[in-house]
Amino acid sequence: MIKLKDLLLEAQVAHTHKSLEWVSNDYIPMTPKTMKQIMGDTPITTFHNLDWFAIKNQLPKVIGKKKSISTYTLDTSNRLSKGGGVQTGGGVVLEMEGKVLVAGTEDLGSVPDEAGRRWIHPSTFGKIVGMSQFEGGGGGIYYRKHLYNMDKKLEDILFKYKTSLLIMPSDSKEDTDRFPPYDNKQKAELIKRYINASNKFLLKMKKKIKKSFMDNVNNPKITKFMSLYGYNELLVYDVKVKDAYIVLDIIGDPNDYDATAAEIKKIKKDLKPFVKGKIFTGFADGVKKFVKQRGGKVW
Questions:
Q1: Most buried among 49, 98, 211, 229, by the most CB within 10 A?
Q2: Beta carbons of 154 and 148 less than 8 angstroms apart
Q3: Domain total for the chain?
Q4: Which of 40, 107, 54, 85 is nearest to 241 (CA)?
């Protein structure tokens, strides 16, 4: 259960904005603690592409931590399997081992909050577990109704918070008094109750979630609707890096051998503390072989 004192530590406006944003938009928090109760410790080997900047600035934040990272095991786009990234230019492909948080069949569109939790939209959740009630514009409303059954006070607290955001200085004193802005303690209480209700809902759906996620782990596939994206997405946590592959086509400069050599040397130095196995270098055409040899499916 989420404790109020933990959220109060992050209850400054700048730090709660993201959580409150996902709460307001009916997103579903997927926490390692709850997913472990559903999935157990389900280990998986996956792949993650990143650029040189992320090695020192982002990788240390997820290695062996509860924070999750987006990975893939299947790619038909000829993008990731060439060493490119999803949100970056890529250039480094990591073979990772971690525990399953969410196993999807497309780009999950997951969003992080300030505490490292991952949130997904109800329509995405519905698609993964095969529940059409969650899909479409009414998915959030359907999900909220479930949460209100879990916490009888949540509906009133959430309504008052959302309404307070609509109050204008020109509104009547009656309205401003009835819906005053939430202070940090009230915001933390709302986040706590929402996440706890969500966790209860997920645990109630334990069998269905586990069956769907394990099917996507053991039989990776890409949803037809999102086939243009050409990859599946799996969120994993408590990750370790096994091997790494540096893509010369992306990292290097074909017109400057010395600069390329220096850059590769620097990247290897930055990778070394995290990679338990070997660091390979090669061209983009070699990425597919690297991934296939380690259990990934690319073509």
A1: 49
A2: yes
A3: 1
A4: 54
